[in-house]
Amino acid sequence: MSVCSSIGKRENRIDAIDKVTGEAIFVDDIRLPGMLYGKMKRSDVPHARIVHVDTSEAEKVPGVKAVITGPEFSHYFPDALAGNPLRDQPVLAVDKVRFKGEPVAGVAAVSEEAAESAAELIQVEYEPLPALLTAADAMDDGASVIHEDLHTYTGASKLHPVKGTNICDYIEVTNGDVEQGLMEADFVFEDTFSTQMVHHVPLECRGAIVQFKSDGDIVVWISDQAPYGARSQLAGALKIPAGRIRVISPPYVGGGFGGKLRFTGLLCCAALAWKAKHRPVKLVLTREEEFISTTTKHATVITLKTGTKKDGTIVARHATLIYDTGAYADRGPTVMDKGCLAAIGPYKIPHVKVQASLVYTNKPPAGAYRGYGVPQVCWAHESQMDIIAEKLKIDPLTIRLRNIVEEGYVSSTEKTEHHAVGLGECLKRVGEEILPTGREKKGGKRNGIRRGYGIACGYKISRTPSGANAFIKLGSDGSVNVLVSSIEMGQGVNTILAQIVSETVGLPVSDVRMAAADTHTTPFFPASTSSRTTFFMGNAVKQAAEEIREQCFEMAEKLLETKRENLMLENGIFLDKTDAERTLPLKELIEQAYSGGISILGRGSYYHYKPGKVPPYVEVATPPSLVWMYGAQGATVEVDTETGTIQVLKVAAAHDVGRAINPVTCEQQIEGGVVQGMGITVCEEMVVGEQGDILNPSLADYKIPVATDVPEIRSILVEEPHREGPHGAVGVGEMTTVPISPAIANAIYDAIGVRIKDLPLTQEKILTALRERGLAKHS
């Protein structure tokens, strides 16, 4: 056995020294011999046919080594389309542009200045086409079709596009008889909610270096959450074997939140590198390019029709979802799928119907964003839960506790069994922290200031089927190297995995080193997304560490001439429990066993694709869910009825983490997610002009929360161990952004009696709503 020493401890992050000293390496820190710098010529119209591209002046700029256009690249790489699951996006625009900011041509030069100057000299002649800037416009009868060849795209046969329209996918999920359920309800509520387009705003802008080697291989250094996904994306677009492509991750990625995924916004660099004739080409986007040319969070319109009994029991819910996926599908089909599965909320509802449409528009593509389509539906169902509670005169906490899923419940959408459900405890803990008891509920009634309290809850699945692989190398000097393809992007995953290795093998965390992902050396992992890393990769690492441990114990048993049950491994030293004098450091053990030197190798693979507990009459129509994440959040706010200003005073966030491998990293995830979710709620919005341009493509105009905006945050860890999680742990990162928007909105309503159904909850919207009700305070 080994002594339990790491799991549950507040270990310091193993990347802390690198980051505070500035020694952390990101993609823009990498310099290669002969490296060129890339810049793109981007479309300045939202929708048009490309008539002609003139690069002659750009080619004359001193220092320019390569100029590439879409037609030239497509001549050598026909039908070079990217996307997953739908391949609909060209590496460079060929005959048509579909959003303002789409790359049309590129320049590689010996300096960024030369490349930028040359790119500005490229002239593009367009034939304008109608621009569809909202999902409603794109769904109108007679609307121009943005993708005329949609049905010919790879992946279209696995989706449900509506031919001749801009709907690139349609999903319908049913259980029971929703019409009958609504007829039998005592009350029926119908409300429509909307969410806006927002950006990930990672501190590190996207960047990549691509080199086409003289032997035909391609080497990529990229800031990406999915090295193997980036490799697959490039291989699919260029139609070359994935084994000819090597994707190397720098040791650190500066934030992702779903935006740095599978070459998003950077495939155009591959076209430039191909033209550069074996010289590496670096493309690092500017902040403006981040806003105008990379993926965003899906804007949505959601209508809920909900039937309840008089006691608040929900009997039926019909949800209609519209996801605006922008000019290209990107991850839209799977984002919408996860939104559908969560659309009814974490509630036991027997009669359900969810209908969802994914719609093309002439805006930057929308894709994966922290929460993966679930924050949008949570905004709707948790806002409506408070509407229902008020109408039925039931406390908001009570009505939720009356309806939430429980252990063993088979869900109406996923059709699988819920397990390790800590949601009730999360709600109760938040209620204790936020909801007023025995004090003046409307505290703060002064000078037009009104105080309110709100709660919300939600759930999200981690994508299944999914899997992970890990290698561990224990050297003859006692050092441990862990080879995995998960990405450290600020979430602290390397520390979590190091703690699992430490716990299993019996070594200090300080002896564990994490290797950077490299598709030629580290084993397959789909992506550091979907809050899957702790659960799936944690299990794989634990298996590999157990294999290492077994080999070490076998050697120790022989060298110490004792029985296995007498041995323990603590802080790298084998101890004989029957004889305190008999000890053997692990390093010496390896040296004695292998005097010539050796590495002890361990490997682990964890994969899950099996139905949960499903009744025989239930047809499993979607991949079964293995990992559920549950959480509840509450907010205390003050609203100034004179100015419309909202101040969030306190947020309580309770999340079921299964088992907290490291409580500090769990709390950091919660705090970061709460602040990010607050930004989405009260200030963030990408504003689109009449010509399809993003009007606020900078941090001067696109407002995100700053330090002075952060309220008191009470992070609450609920631990309901998962039977298959490593030490019972599950993920937490995505769920932290899910309930915050409705919690704040419900608190605002509690304060001033105004219900706003469209995000963000701006000062202007508050004032307008107050004036319409005659409640605004005037000085």
Explain briefly what this protein structure is.
This protein has 779 residues and is an alpha+beta fold.
Q: Would you write up a description of this structure?
A:
This protein is an alpha+beta fold. It has 3 domains: 16-24 and 466-608, 2-Layer Sandwich (Aldehyde Oxidoreductase, domain 4), CATH 3.30.365.10; 31-129 and 203-255 and 260-293, Aldehyde Oxidoreductase, domain 3, CATH 3.90.1170.50; 377-462 and 625-772, Aldehyde Oxidoreductase, domain 4, CATH 3.30.365.10. It is 27% helix and 25% strand. It has 19 helices and 28 strands. The model has no long low-confidence stretch (mean pLDDT 93).
Oligomer: single chain
Largest sheet: 7 strands, mixed
Q: Output the number of helix runs.
A: 19
**Strand tally:** 28
Radius of gyration: 27 Å
Q: What is the correct CATH architecture of the largest domain? A: 2-Layer Sandwich
CATH class of the largest domain: Alpha Beta
Structural class call reads alpha+beta
Instruction: Give the strand order of the largest sheet, numbering strands 1, 2, ... along the chain.
Output: 3-7-1-14-11-12-13
Summarize the topology.
Blueprint: H1 16-21, E1 36-42, E2 48-54, H2 56-59, E3 64-69, H3 70-76, E4 81-82, E5 89-90, E6 96-97, E7 103-109, H4 112-121, E8 123-128, H5 135-139, E9 167-175, H6 178-184, E10 187-195, E11 207-212, E12 218-222, H7 227-238, E13 245-248, H8 267-275, E14 281-284, H9 287-293, E15 299-308, E16 314-326, H10 332-342, E17 351-360, H11 374-392, H12 396-403, H13 423-434, E18 449-462, E19 466-474, E20 480-483, H14 493-506, E21 512-514, H15 533-559, E22 567-570, E23 573-576, E24 579-585, H16 586-593, E25 600-608, E26 627-640, E27 646-656, H17 663-682, E28 712-718, H18 740-752, H19 763-772
Parallel strand pairs: 1-14, 12-13, 16-17, 20-21, 27-28
Antiparallel strand pairs: 1-7, 2-6, 2-8, 3-7, 4-5, 9-17, 10-15, 11-12, 11-14, 15-16, 18-26, 19-20, 19-25, 22-23, 23-24, 26-27
